[in-house]
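User: Continuing from earlier, I have the next pair ready.

Assistant: Great, send them over.

User: Here they are, in order.

Assistant: Folding the first of the pair now:
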Amino acid sequence: MARIPDRYQDITRKALLSSAAAGPIGAFSTVADVASIAGIWGTFLCVIATREHVEMSKETAVQICKSALLGMAGYYAGCKTATRVFNLIPFAGTLMGMGLSALANLLFTYRFALTVCGIFETNKGSQLNLGTLGRDILALYHGNGIADDAKTIVGILAA
C-alpha cells in the first residue's frame, strides 16, 4: 500500500484542509472549483519540489496541475455534476451538494498528494522531467481504495 512519507504530512494536511474548504465552490461552479483546486495542488507541488531541491515556479506547478486536472476531467466533472444535482432539492440538497463536493475534493487531493509523493520518491537523485510531469501524475494517479484512503485522510487531518 502506497503512503505519504512523514516528512510531507504537514503540507498534505494543509492541502487537504484547503481543498475541503474550497468544496462548497464546487457545488455551484466546476470552473471555479478546478481553478481553486489547481491553485491548491500547485502550491502543494511547489512545496514538495522545493523540499526535494527541484526548481519549479508556482506558475509551472499550477500549469502542471491544470494539465492533470484536465486529463481526468471526465471523472472529475462527473463527480462535480453529481454534487450540483443536489442543488435541485431546496436547502438540504444544497448543503448535501456542498458536503459531497468537499469530500470529493479531499479524496482527489489526497490521491494527488499520494501520486506526487510517489513520483518524487521514485525519482530521488535523478532528473525530474517537468515537461511530462502532468502526464506522469495522470498516469500514476491512484489511491489505495476508498476505505483505506478515507481512513488515511482522517488520520492525517486528526494528527
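And the other member of the pair:
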Amino acid sequence: MNDYKIIAAKIFIASLSLITYGELSPLMKADSPTYEFIVKPMPWIPLSILLAYIMVPIILLIIDNYIAYTLLSGVSLLRVAIELEGFLPPTSLRTATIILYILAIFLSLTLAVEDLSSRIRGEILRLKWSQF
C-alpha cells in the first residue's frame, strides 16, 4: 500500500470517530428522551462511549503500531456488535454506521498488516546487509 492509501485509511477512521461523536452526543443531553433510560441509571455509559468510540480510535492512530491497529479493529467489531444487538437507542444512521464500522475493521486490519510487513521487510533487509 502506498502512503496516500495509508493516509486515506487513517483519515477515514478518524472521521468515523467524529461521526460517532455527532451521532451520540445528542443522546447524552439531559433533555434527550434517552437520557432517562441510558445515562441516569448508569452514569458511566457516556464516559465509556466517549472513550471507546471517540478518543480511542484517534489515540490508536497516533500510536501507529500494528498492535494498536489490531485493537482498533476490535473496538470497531465491538461497536458493530453493539449496533446489531440494539443496546443503544435507534438512530437514523444505524445502518450506515454498521457498514462504516465494518469498513473500518478491514481498514484497520489492513493497516496492521502493512505496518507488520514493513517491519519484517526492514528486518530482512538489515539481515541481508549484515551478511557482508
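Worth noting for the second one:
The longest helix spans residues 94-130. The mean pLDDT is 81.
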